Amino acid sequence: MNTRSLSFIALFAAFIAVLGLVPAVQIPVLAVPITAQSFGVMLAGAVLGAKRGALAVLLFLVLVAIGLPLLPGGRGGLGVFMGPSAGFLFSWPIGACIVGWLAERFWNRMNFAWMMLACVVGGILAIYPLGILWLAYATDISVLKTAIGSAAYLPGDFIKAAIASAVALMVRRSYPLIETRGRAIS
Amino acid sequence: MINGLYRPGASPIHRLRAGTKLLLLAITCTIVFFMEGWALAVVPVITVALYATARFDAQTLYRQLRPALPFILLIAMFQVFAASWVEAVETVLRFSGLILLAALLSLTTSPAALSDAMLSAMRPFKRFGLPAEQIALAMTLAIRFIPVISQAGEDVREAQRARGGRNRFFRSAGPTIIRTLKLADELAEALEARGLGLGDAEAPRRPTSAFEPRR
Q: Which stretches are transmembrane (chain A) (predicted)?
């Protein structure tokens, strides 16, 4: 870890916080609003790589935990980690880590399809199972039924993954931060 | 000083040390999470009593619960049909209790005190690679970056409007990130130059609190 990495981690934690200010899309049937913050989680991994991406998301969650109202609607504090949907929150750092790990692997042959694959695998496939399992365990509703309920968020998350991929590619062209083995890009 | 959700006061709960409160919360929440049946009826009684001790009114209490309420009620409604009304009541009591107890800690403890408690709890683990000073520095930087990014995003959107583009949030995300990455880079250089970075083993003084001004 060097000062530069620390600064980038802080920047992306702050970026996820700023995304919480974007008005959430409220869909009447769903109890949980669709927010822009999971977009920031994918982007943190896709721009910073596995380790720094995961640490950025973790730092954001620490800031929420100490009582800063950084989640959409000014929510924050330890209370949000107690709710039935907290599993999605806990799986964010893991998701960012997987997005980043894949982005590092694909870095030298990167195009939109590879970036999208990284974002979908880490930002959706890794986050949903954990969130669903927590929800099912906490509420005693069967895993299948919670999975069906959570599927309502899939279209929004795919759109976010697509936008995150496009933005990450743009950043990669002008400010590449992931270093691949053997050849350092800086 | 950033207060977040904190509501200053002088009640016994306000005066408890942050670390003590965190420990008590962890123990209580674990118990509440695994409680079942009639025992759960005690949870709202204790919660209300604690809020009264901290001198918060019913409105403050309700405001802590409100964001999570639709979701909890939805699950409860589902359980009435899928399982039984007993389980539905259990779910409502359990989660409203957990959320309210945790919120009480955030209401009665300043973010500064909480982050200090967290960092000092971390200090013994330094030899296992948990760098408390680095985390404190990262927290300070992140809090400082929030208004900087907001402003940069606003600038980018204004420029895009001036060029006649449609004003969409996500179109501004890329340029905003690139702009602020440069700032973050310069900040890292400035920190290094002043001997406050991580590269300098003999840094004169690193912040021990995320909220204290650096001297």
A: 30-48, 55-72, 78-102, 114-138, 150-171
